[in-house]
């Protein structure tokens, strides 16, 4: 990459070019689309701050202020992104990729790449697709199954490493070492650049799904960025190390964060920021490449993440898995032709991303997708009125069991829940119902704990209003009824906004 002097471009351009067939679509008739999808990148804790170039670039585009994930954990959120389907429609009781049934033809035939290829796009995927047990068939050393929907790919086969990685590269098993040029984010970036340049040289519209592992733990920075941000610590938000006795069991049972645990969280915070500098380098080099081929104005760049993160909030030292804004509110920014610049206040969520990309590419959202495109709401020439119905989204989470970080239980068997996030001109609420039936979770009325927060008055969700005189019982009833319809819906017709 031009901005990484220690990195040599990988010799993959010829193989990628060979995978790009002659276009059936005339050059210039469709926009290119790039999705930059980071891992664990929050908004609440300043997770976008270190990506200064990307921030400046995207400031000239559009921002969806109220963008949320439908589930605050890696594989289910990525399943939602890839399929445009709610997690409950891929749920399995057999474990799998964090309770998602992704190793079957039904899922493989409904990923975003499949739809973009049908629209005439050359498609590429680079980085983390799903967690390791979700990509096992693609990562076999022999007789690997092709990653569905992508003409070219470099898919991570392992997890939680920034050196010594293994990949499947267009069906070939690849092992990387521990030299500077093997740094994970740079490898992903270099393959992405080769794919984009080969597509541009072929005069074909492309869809590039670039998914670095950063800033996921251990958030190992590139050696050339290892000394950055040495004076920073994790933000001391009002709910940092806060004892929330009126919250659900996982939260109210937390012991105080010790100084040692706080220091560990601070060290992780610094490494998270450092690791994102290499992601910012990818953006710089992608834009330089688009400028070289005069394609900046014909390319949509979308930037988001699979979920947020916590570093001391409610005494949880690190991780995600909770329904609060630090875990479910993530960046969604987009730059490209015809957009109305600035902030947009409607509510959207991860399930809507694939439908939006399809519409940006000139397609119609498939009936089998649960999500709804919000592309028209972003366009400067759109006659669409303010979408008053886009004021809510649903959350679903199946516990991973007992999960411990720095001596704290950040997940427990009673941490399965469904919820709803409501934001409009008069209301800004989070409502959550907790369940103990971890495997089946039939979404009955048998929630055993409940939470309600007025986020306008309580932006850090520190005071649970459920069951108090301050609770709006009529609103609770409305949210409960809407939630229980949405968490069993399937397809465009049933999953109406």
Automatic annotation (TrEMBL):
Record GO biological process: glycosaminoglycan metabolic process
Keyword line: Signal
Keyword Signal: yes
Signal peptide (from-to): 1-21
Maturation and modification: The conversion to 3-oxoalanine (also known as C-formylglycine, FGly), of a serine or cysteine residue in prokaryotes and of a cysteine residue in eukaryotes, is critical for catalytic activity.
Positions carrying 3-oxoalanine (Cys): 74
Coiled coil: none
Sulfatase N-terminal domain ranges (all copies): 31-362
This protein's name: Sulfatase N-terminal domain-containing protein
